[in-house]
Amino acid sequence: MQKLSKKKLYYGLAAGVVLAAIAVGITVTKHSKSAAIMEEAALVRTEVVGRAAAAQDYTYSGEVKGRFESQLAFQVGGKIIKRHVQLGSVVNAGDVLMEIDAKDVKQTVNSNAAQVYSAESQVKLAENNLNRYQKLFEGGAISAAQLDQYKSAYDVAAASLRQASAQYAQGSNQLDYSVLYADKAGVISSITAEAGQVVTAGQSVVSIVQDGEREVEISVPENRIDEFRNMGQLNVTFWALPGISVDAAVREIAPMADAVSRTYKVRVSLVNPPAEVKLGMTSTVTAANRGKQQDAAYIPLTAIYQTSDVPGVWVLNNEIVTLRHIKIGAVGNGKVQVLEGLQNDDVIVTAGVHKLKEGQKVRIAGDTL
């Protein structure tokens, strides 16, 4: 009886283990099925690859500027006593912009004027003496050596008059320089000095953008500057003027890159811009490389799936994704150039690439692009 009880206990334990294993297997199977269902439910966006011999467009942000911009300064130093313009003021050639205190210059001019009067008197005296001694020489009363002395005295007096007159003219010019005039018609774009400030000769105080052509200044990276030299017609749009588009052309490219940004300043001339285009407006210049066209596909950057150092994309075939390695080229404007690895009409995943696994079944969210 005791042996029979031990056998029953053993068989009971064995049956319990078997039932537990069955239960665990059922649970694992359910979890596997759930995981498979979740994998099958992955939503992605796709795009059909198209290779064409077309150049990629690039956009650059810029600012509207004038073709000619002058930095004006006083030609003499002094204290500014009046400012006649404001930022944005429209001025004509000859308008007074600023004045500096000219009291010291006036005193110099007065001193030079007195020297001129004195020199004129000396010339008149020397001339009278020369005429008098000329007659005495003709009458034989004096020698030729004495006459030559009076001729030299007259020449010295005349030279002193010319020197005094030149100093007076210079002082008069300095007095004129105490008033800053607009040399061209335009718009005041900046003011860097105020009334009461002491400035030196040549120190820029006012900037004027001259009337006429309007341009956009952009910064082009050094790896694009050679291609940019071959750009054809450009297109310019403005953030504040939706719906307005202006044709443009490259006018000037800086010979050296900026030391900090390592970009080249490029001036783009606007062709017949409308009156709504104002100085300082934010603009976008769209450029297409018309020079070097090559047969290559351009796909969104979001389609790239990086594994180690090798880029790849998920290619969709019969709702199953496969990772395919590619060779990329130029990157810009949200696109990447694919040189090798893709064919025409390949369907690639462009959104949700980091949630996929090799051989996973997916569903397409929306229409294929």
UniProtKB/TrEMBL annotation:
Transmembrane segments: 9-28
GO-annotated molecular function: efflux transmembrane transporter activity
Pfam families on file: Beta-barrel_RND_2 (PF25954), BSH_RND (PF25917), HH_MFP_RND (PF25876), YknX_C (PF25989)
Origin: domain of life: Bacteria
Keyword field: Membrane, Transmembrane, Transmembrane helix
Gene3D superfamilies from the UniProt entry: 2.40.30.170, 2.40.420.20, 2.40.50.100, Helix hairpin bin
Domain Multidrug resistance protein MdtA-like barrel-sandwich hybrid: 75-209
Residue stretches making up the CusB-like beta-barrel domain: 216-289
InterPro entries registered for this protein in UniProt: Beta-barrel_RND_2 (IPR058792), MdtA-like_BSH (IPR058625), MdtA-like_HH (IPR058624), RND_pump_MFP (IPR006143), YknX-like_C (IPR058637)
Domain (Multidrug resistance protein MdtA-like alpha-helical hairpin) ranges: 110-178
Domain YknX-like C-terminal permuted SH3-like stretches: 298-363
UniProt GO cellular component terms: efflux pump complex
Family of this protein: Belongs to the membrane fusion protein (MFP) (TC 8.A.1) family.
Entry protein name: RND family efflux transporter, MFP subunit
